[in-house]
Amino acid sequence: MMIIEFGIDTLDGAGSAIREGRGRWRVRQLAAAVCDDPTTAAAELERIGFDVIPRDGTAFAARLDRITAI
Q1: By the 8 A CB rule, do 58 and 36 touch?
Q2: 10 CB-near residues (< 8 Å, 6+ apart)
């Protein structure tokens, strides 16, 4: 945002470094979100066409403490 909105000076390759870092961050956030609420993750995967089949005996509960944490 600072680069686009305020035109701050950057080194060559700054945009690529930011995009790559954001990609890594989003993957980590997605993994954390799936662990915090696997039922919603499974429902969304099914909505977009995946078959999600839990292993026998697996119980899923949303981690509301983590979902609502600040």
Answers
A1: no
A2: 3
- In the numeric block, the tokens 């956030």 are attached to 29
pTM assigned to the model? 0.71
SS3 state at 7: coil
Alpha helix positions (H), 1-70: 2-6, 14-36, 38-47, 64-67
Full pLDDT tens readout for the chain, 70 residues:
777 788 888 888 888 898 999 999 999 999 999 999 999 999 999 999 999 999 998 888 899 898 888 8
Instruction: Decide if 20 contacts 50 (C-beta within 8 A).
Output: no
